[in-house]
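Please, structure for the following, as C-alpha coordinates.
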Amino acid sequence: MNKVVLSVELHDDKIKKKAMKVVSNLSGVESVSVDMKEQKLTLIGDIDPVVAVGKLRKLCHTDIVSVGPAKEENKGKNNKEEKKKPAVAENQNHQNLDDMVKAYEAYHHMHNQMRQPAYYYISVEENPNACVIC
Protein backbone atom coordinates (compact mmCIF):
# COMPACT_ATOMS: atom_id res chain seq x y z
CA MET A 1 0.00 0.00 0.00
CA ASN A 2 1.36 3.36 -1.01
CA LYS A 3 0.20 6.85 -0.26
CA VAL A 4 0.84 9.22 -3.15
CA VAL A 5 0.36 12.97 -2.77
CA LEU A 6 0.12 14.91 -6.02
CA SER A 7 0.05 18.66 -6.57
CA VAL A 8 -2.57 19.43 -9.23
CA GLU A 9 -3.90 22.67 -10.67
CA LEU A 10 -7.66 22.20 -10.46
CA HIS A 11 -9.41 25.42 -11.47
CA ASP A 12 -13.04 24.34 -11.24
CA ASP A 13 -15.30 21.45 -10.31
CA LYS A 14 -15.49 20.17 -13.88
CA ILE A 15 -11.75 19.44 -14.04
CA LYS A 16 -11.92 18.04 -10.50
CA LYS A 17 -14.59 15.53 -11.55
CA LYS A 18 -12.59 14.51 -14.61
CA ALA A 19 -9.44 14.06 -12.52
CA MET A 20 -11.30 11.96 -9.95
CA LYS A 21 -12.77 9.80 -12.72
CA VAL A 22 -9.41 9.26 -14.41
CA VAL A 23 -7.59 8.42 -11.19
CA SER A 24 -10.32 6.17 -9.81
CA ASN A 25 -10.20 4.05 -12.98
CA LEU A 26 -6.53 3.18 -12.40
CA SER A 27 -5.93 -0.34 -11.15
CA GLY A 28 -4.98 -0.66 -7.49
CA VAL A 29 -6.52 2.62 -6.28
CA GLU A 30 -8.37 2.16 -3.00
CA SER A 31 -8.96 5.73 -1.85
CA VAL A 32 -8.91 9.15 -3.52
CA SER A 33 -9.20 12.49 -1.76
CA VAL A 34 -8.91 16.03 -3.09
CA ASP A 35 -8.05 19.19 -1.17
CA MET A 36 -9.13 22.11 -3.35
CA LYS A 37 -7.68 24.71 -0.96
CA GLU A 38 -4.13 23.35 -1.19
CA GLN A 39 -4.71 21.83 -4.65
CA LYS A 40 -3.50 18.39 -3.59
CA LEU A 41 -4.77 14.97 -4.62
CA THR A 42 -4.07 12.04 -2.32
CA LEU A 43 -4.17 8.46 -3.61
CA ILE A 44 -3.98 5.35 -1.44
CA GLY A 45 -3.43 1.88 -2.89
CA ASP A 46 -1.02 -0.20 -4.93
CA ILE A 47 -0.48 2.21 -7.79
CA ASP A 48 2.37 3.49 -9.90
CA PRO A 49 2.70 7.26 -9.29
CA VAL A 50 4.26 7.83 -12.71
CA VAL A 51 1.23 6.32 -14.46
CA ALA A 52 -1.15 8.41 -12.34
CA VAL A 53 0.76 11.60 -13.13
CA GLY A 54 0.84 10.71 -16.82
CA LYS A 55 -2.95 10.34 -16.91
CA LEU A 56 -3.54 13.55 -14.93
CA ARG A 57 -1.17 15.66 -17.03
CA LYS A 58 -3.58 15.23 -19.94
CA LEU A 59 -6.08 17.28 -17.90
CA CYS A 60 -3.98 19.71 -15.85
CA HIS A 61 -0.48 20.46 -14.60
CA THR A 62 0.53 17.75 -12.10
CA ASP A 63 3.61 17.17 -9.91
CA ILE A 64 4.49 14.42 -7.43
CA VAL A 65 4.81 15.81 -3.89
CA SER A 66 5.49 12.61 -1.95
CA VAL A 67 5.30 8.83 -2.19
CA GLY A 68 5.35 6.68 0.91
CA PRO A 69 3.70 3.84 2.77
CA ALA A 70 0.11 4.33 3.87
CA LYS A 71 -0.28 4.77 7.64
CA GLU A 72 -2.24 2.01 9.36
CA GLU A 73 -4.16 2.08 12.61
CA ASN A 74 -2.18 1.62 15.86
CA LYS A 75 -2.93 -1.70 17.56
CA GLY A 76 -1.76 -1.11 21.16
CA LYS A 77 0.53 -3.95 22.28
CA ASN A 78 1.66 -4.82 18.79
CA ASN A 79 2.82 -1.25 18.37
CA LYS A 80 5.46 -1.66 21.13
CA GLU A 81 6.76 -4.85 19.58
CA GLU A 82 6.93 -3.24 16.15
CA LYS A 83 9.10 -0.44 17.52
CA LYS A 84 11.76 -2.96 18.54
CA LYS A 85 11.79 -4.72 15.17
CA PRO A 86 12.57 -1.64 13.01
CA ALA A 87 15.73 -0.97 15.04
CA VAL A 88 17.10 -4.38 14.07
CA ALA A 89 15.92 -4.01 10.48
CA GLU A 90 17.40 -0.51 10.28
CA ASN A 91 20.78 -1.80 11.48
CA GLN A 92 20.72 -4.54 8.85
CA ASN A 93 19.74 -2.03 6.14
CA HIS A 94 22.65 0.15 7.21
CA GLN A 95 25.04 -2.81 6.87
CA ASN A 96 23.62 -3.63 3.44
CA LEU A 97 24.09 0.00 2.42
CA ASP A 98 27.72 -0.09 3.60
CA ASP A 99 28.33 -3.23 1.54
CA MET A 100 26.83 -1.58 -1.55
CA VAL A 101 28.97 1.54 -1.06
CA LYS A 102 32.12 -0.59 -0.81
CA ALA A 103 31.15 -2.50 -3.94
CA TYR A 104 30.48 0.75 -5.78
CA GLU A 105 33.86 2.18 -4.76
CA ALA A 106 35.59 -0.95 -6.07
CA TYR A 107 33.84 -0.67 -9.43
CA HIS A 108 35.76 1.45 -11.91
CA HIS A 109 33.89 1.98 -15.12
CA MET A 110 36.35 2.32 -17.97
CA HIS A 111 35.47 4.75 -20.71
CA ASN A 112 36.67 3.99 -24.20
CA GLN A 113 37.93 7.33 -25.30
CA MET A 114 38.10 7.85 -29.00
CA ARG A 115 41.04 9.65 -30.48
CA GLN A 116 40.38 12.84 -32.30
CA PRO A 117 40.92 12.44 -36.03
CA ALA A 118 44.05 14.09 -37.43
CA TYR A 119 42.99 16.44 -40.17
CA TYR A 120 45.10 16.30 -43.32
CA TYR A 121 45.09 19.08 -45.81
CA ILE A 122 47.14 19.81 -48.92
CA SER A 123 48.58 23.22 -49.55
CA VAL A 124 48.31 24.32 -53.16
CA GLU A 125 51.82 25.78 -53.17
CA GLU A 126 53.38 22.46 -52.25
CA ASN A 127 51.78 20.59 -55.14
CA PRO A 128 53.03 22.02 -58.45
CA ASN A 129 50.68 19.79 -60.47
CA ALA A 130 47.56 21.23 -58.86
CA CYS A 131 45.25 23.23 -61.09
CA VAL A 132 44.70 26.78 -59.96
CA ILE A 133 42.21 29.05 -61.66
CA CYS A 134 43.09 32.66 -61.27
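The longest strand covers residues 62-69. The chain is about 35% helix and 20% strand.
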